[in-house]
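Let's inspect one such protein example.
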Amino acid sequence: MRLQRRYFYLGLLLALFCALSGSVHAQTYRLVTTAFKPFTDPNHAKGGFLTEVARQALAQRGHKIDVTYLPWARAMREAESGRYDGLLSAFYNEERAQKFYFSAPLNTTKMVFVGLHDKIKQTSYKSLSELTSYTIAVGHKWAYSEAFEKSTILNKYGVNDEPTGIRMLYNDRVDLFAVNLDQFNYAIKHMPEFDRQRTVVLEPEISINDHHIAASRLTPSSLDFLAEFNTGLAAIKANGAYANIKHEFFGF
């Protein structure tokens, strides 16, 4: 009887532990990514916005992460081979879906036209032809929509990074800045000499994409890993932690 009672209490303790930790087998998941500030940033104390989202989501399930930063092409190859548990992060497309499973979106990101409302009186456009009178700062090798990238009717001026585009916008050297909205907000947050309240974002967006964790189809445990992540991600969105992370990085 005492032995049965001991096993009974041990069972209760184990059940309580599992309920509190959210996972029976705590693991350290190995993720690979490339430097893409502010989403994944090896020089940031928390590794970037998406890195912190992944860390807190998996922590909800009792897990840890170990993140390696590699050049993008190599990161893709290493993740596809199954050497890492996941690629942080990737946009979904049909070609990648042949090689990877995808998590729920960590973030939805938009490429937009940003202007200053005291100069740009419109807040929307129906076609790119309406923007031909403007000089538009565009990033070298940034991913826009195919229509925007191939357009020859727009007056585009190339820049290397967000701070340069912001300075050109506020110093009247360009009329619009075609930029990732999250990256714009992150950059201008660290440039207090420029008032973000002066900006206007034109609708619709140039393009919109979701950030996912991609896990190799070659790895038998990939679906289990993504299920753990998705459950944790839903939890931090419900308890407010996700909103706190976003506010920390982007100021809203």
Notes: Residues 109-208 form a domain with the D-Maltodextrin-Binding Protein; domain 2 fold (CATH 3.40.190.10).
